[in-house]
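Batch job 17 of 40 flagged for manual review because the log was empty.
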Amino acid sequence: MKENKMIHQHLSIVIPFYNPPYEAFKTCLENIRVLDPLEVILVDDCSTDTAIIALAKQSGFTYLKTPYQSGHDGLPFNIGLQHVKGTYVCKVDADDLLLELPATMPYNIHLARINRSVDPTNLTLEELILAPRSIHNGAIITTDIARDVTFSNDHAIFNDVLTLLRLLYRKERFSVHPTMNYIYNDIPNSIQTSKPRHYHRLRHIQTVARFCQLEAVSHEQSEYFLKLAMLNFRYGAKARNMLKTHISSKELA
């Protein structure tokens, strides 16, 4: 893909939100404003906090609202994605900070470098299944591709991981930001922090299964990918070290 300069002039940023902490949301919007993108679309998942709603409506950004409270970011992000005008789109969580944009887009995807995540420069499909992590936030993706891998409205899967699995399976190339440019904020009592570890690992298995369905992955490959997901369920972060012990050399080939 030909490199495009002045990315901000062609970038739509979509921010789904539901009652985020006020100060975090305010800081998020202030940071986005400094980046000066083509447009910012705030999609309200039926928030009940009047101060948050007022902040969004008075921000000067586009304000949209879901028809019902969905409880996750799939529906609001997809609604925002339908309205974007930019060549590129980027999803930002309402309580996080996007600090910097790339100077150019050598490929269709540019991944952010997130404060809590391992460097994704050499990320592979297998590695993301063995060690799932949220690296979709802050990623800049061409709008056409993003619309082809829209988020699911299903609570039972990780949309951010599902999207990256699909793109990696399609062998989309990507660049990575050279310095940390996305700050993920841990919010108390969120699903991520309040649910037990095995809940998230089961959800990851369902995410991998959904990926296999959506990409029409063959029976043999699906079995292989699900075996990798089971290694994550059993061993968590140590799954990569257990790969050769539990997966045959034939399958690895």
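Reviewer: the log was empty due to a logging misconfiguration, but the result itself is present. The radius of gyration is 18 Å. Unflagging and moving on to job 18.
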